[in-house]
Amino acid sequence: MQSETKRYNIDDIIRFITTKTKCGNLVDFCKTGNLIPGNDKKEQWLSCYISAFANSNGGTVIFGIKTERGRAFEIDLVNFKNVSSFWLKTLLENEISPIIENLDVYEVADNNNVESGFIVVKIPKSPHRPHMASDNRFYQRVGNKTEMMQEQRVRELYNLASVSEMEFVGIINTQGVPTLENSRIVNMNFYPKFLVRNAGSSIEKYFKFELWLPSDLHDTSFLPLQNYFNRLEEKFSVFSVPNRQPVFQNEICNILEAKLFVNNENIQSFNKGEMLIKLFYSRGIKEFNYNLQETFTYENKFLSVSDFVKTALYEK
User: Fold this and answer.
1) What domains can be seen in the chain, in order of their start residue?
2) How many CA atoms lie within 13 A of 241 on its CB side?
3) What Å distances lie between residue 275 and 60, 142, 259, 261, 267, CA to CA?
């Protein structure tokens, strides 16, 4: 399956045809005859067709491939002199309301003739659903078909469009800062920062971030973390961070800075341990587990017992 950033090349597209890939709700193929600039009927059809993907789970459409019995069948090259990706993207932006953000429309030239080839449209699952086509109706993908939405489904999407969606973006500053003695590590300190994002279309006013760290790796003198200490849960120290201000749409926040210290006494716990993260917000709870040894490294290498001097100095 295509990754979020990858664009199809000519080999990918030819492979769809040679393997007779089936049309579906995430990838579909269209003949060139559906791309006729100035033809009102075809242009309206395109707005219905593409908006249906945005109103569903997104997907990719490749123009320049004929189908047979619901599968990619043969090449039907687009003539770039008559039809361009610029024209198609402009049409879709003008005919679909609201505009589908991050819509990617691009050309893939044929190996034998750069003036012809395929036009690929990559449609994201839109956070701003529902999108209305130029006939003032709403459409969705059902299997490999485009169908008009029922009123109830349109209402549901309008309700979904006005909600927040908190995400845990990830951890930065995962490289260790050592205290060395004769080129051997005495202590290794990590100062990770934890990032969250509101990926929804509404402001998130209330959320809480919980970090579960193995207690023997926690430095109680590091106040930016210790100030949020909440409780002990077996071998974990749990830190609870409430939001200090609303998080706006697409805003990324550094919610917490922590400190972990590793030495000869706790390296075994570090190598076998996990760090747990819980994100509570108005629509539910999201949980994440991180293997400590794989997450926190020194010079891009895993830490091992042999890296440390046998008698650790407790310099936290």
Assistant:
1) 10-160 (3.30.950.30), 166-307 (2.60.40.10)
2) 24
3) 37, 40, 12, 14, 15
Q: Higher confidence at residue 282 or residue 15?
A: 15
Q: With contact defined as beta carbons under 8 Å apart, do 159 and 282 qualify?
A: no
Smallest CA-to-CA distance from 267 within 292, 239, 237 is with: 292
Question: What is the Cα–Cα distance from 299 to 105, expressed in whole angstroms?
Answer: 40
Measured in degrees and rounded to the nearest 5, phi and psi for residue 87 equal: -60, -45
3-state secondary structure of 163: coil
Q: What is the pLDDT of residues 133-169, one digit of tens each?
A: 999 999 999 988 999 999 999 988 887 767 788 999 9
Tell me how far apart the alpha carbons of residues 205 and 244 are, in angstroms, rounded to a whole number.
9
> What span, in angstroms and rounded, lies between the C-alpha atoms of 261 and 184?
15
Q: How far is CA 217 from CA 70, 104, 159, 190, 262, in A?
A: 57, 46, 44, 10, 6
More confident position, 31 or 144: 31
pTM: 0.55
Residue 175: pLDDT band (50, 70, 90) is very high
Identify the sign of the CA torsion 131, 136, 142, 146: negative
Mean of per-residue pLDDT scores for the chain: 92
